[in-house]
Sequence to fold (582 residues):
Amino acid sequence: MKYVIIGNSAAGIGAVEGIRQLDTQGEITIIASEPHHTYSRPLISYLLKGAATEETMRYRAADFYEKNNCKTIFGVEVTKINEAEKSVMLENGETVPYDKLLVATGSSAFVPPFEGLDTVAEKFSFMCLDDSLALDNALDSSKSVLIVGAGLIGLKCAEGILGKSKSADAPSRAKKISVLDLSPRILSSILDDDSASLVQSHLENAGVQFHLAKNITRFEKNAAILENGERLDFDILVLAVGVRPNTALLNGIAEIERGIVINEKSETTAPNIYAAGDCTQTTDISDGQEKIMALLPNAYIQGECAGINMAGGEKSFTNAIPMNAIGFCGLSIITAGNYTGEDYKEAEKNSQYKRLFYSDNKLNGYIMVGNVEKAGIYTSLIREQTPLDSIDFALVCEKPGLMAFTKTAREKMLGGERK
Amino acid sequence: MFPWAQGVKITSNWGENMKRVYVNEKWCLGCRLCEYYCAFADTGEKDMARALKDIKINPRIKIEEKDGISFAVNCRHCREPLCVKGCITGGLSVIDGVVSIDKEKCVSCYTCVLCCPFGAVSPSESGAVQKCELCVNEGAHPACVKGCPNAAIVYEDRTEAKM
Fold:
């Protein structure tokens, strides 16, 4: 059996580990445009901050490919999938045949067509290792940085730049760090108003300046001209507006909506072709909607699921939900699900905040800032769609724990499977 | 229990060690000795009282207690560990059946805290998360189990016959 995997990140690695659970002999070829050993993409901000090195940010051990008997073709783009011949074509003209193919091509930074963007000398995206290295190289204590986008990527980038400059003995990495966003609140995809303003003040105290609910009309070399006429000067521009799934390889081959359409076995609509991770769209079981959930845990689980099915096993991934764990300068945030229904709210106190959302006897979502202990118990209630009348919901709201479950449920969880 | 765990039976990665810490809730006295033995386990000290004096312990096994009911909770070392699958760094992995932490790799992003359905992985002061690793570095038998005076936690192999 010949397996070809396009992509060398969480979903691709998950697929290797999925395949090898069932098939230790089949030939696996991993093809990736980046020339690097598999690394953790979310760690690029930690690299910038100095909290990770290129070595510690490896997603798997140095001997991973050898141990899993994988052939690697790195630093080479796949230009085309030939569905009829069951092969992929590389930019160097080579063809690689497959029996089962996985497209795990991830996503790319979306760069809006701003007027005058071509006049900006130092501009960066913040998606991959090379972006982080290039930005690191450009940073200087005499330069101001403007980050466009106050989402997860933009703010982790800001934190990364702040990182070292916070300690007294390290030189400052930038003269000024500003973040601009169209939205009136930061992290608008995962936080509500109260938690967003809590996190914003925390970042402001750490030295980040915000320009929210602002729209850029055009760029002029070292300045962004805003819709209200304001002018923001900068030396370095980081564009973190959003990401787009890399779906082009399956154009005309498999169904693509917002992302590559897959079923719960990670199969695309084309035979023998699977897809997983950020390039796909998935059903969010917390609200039933199809969406792109560009999240590492989902990517890995989907990739592993694809791998098992590619190797002839039977595996489904049916309960994806949006979920995020993220922290900024010591302040932790964990969120999951969607924010509809009635709510249980613990007002902000000492930089701590908690809000749960529920309806129809189910937990829909939650936001926790500060104290995030045992957050996974809430995540599990959402994923398992646990009927809230089967647990002590009032207790679990206040204090996530197994105490809220029935004795029988607990016995199953803590007593294990008996002989 | 978990829909994503349905389908093929997967035994790889679970290795040789099938023994786990299991809880007998009705025998738990809520004495919290398990917590103290856990906190003491890797201090390298000989005397528990001296080692833990004036320290607010943050053990990897924790007692939940309410209205006369108490029980200990620690890592279940799941067959399909969501913490490992979700780990963004590769710092959590299954080694000989034990869900283990590579403290050098962990950056305390808390994705594992987000994922664990038991609340068994927790933040710590060390810069890495913490969870029960069955005292594999300390010898064969988990310290909490050795210290429990009432067999409310036991270290046993309760799995089906090995495949």
Remarks:
- Chain B is about 20% helix and 15% strand.
- Confidence is low (pLDDT under 50) at residues 1-15 of chain B.
- The first strand of chain B starts at residue 20 and ends at 23.
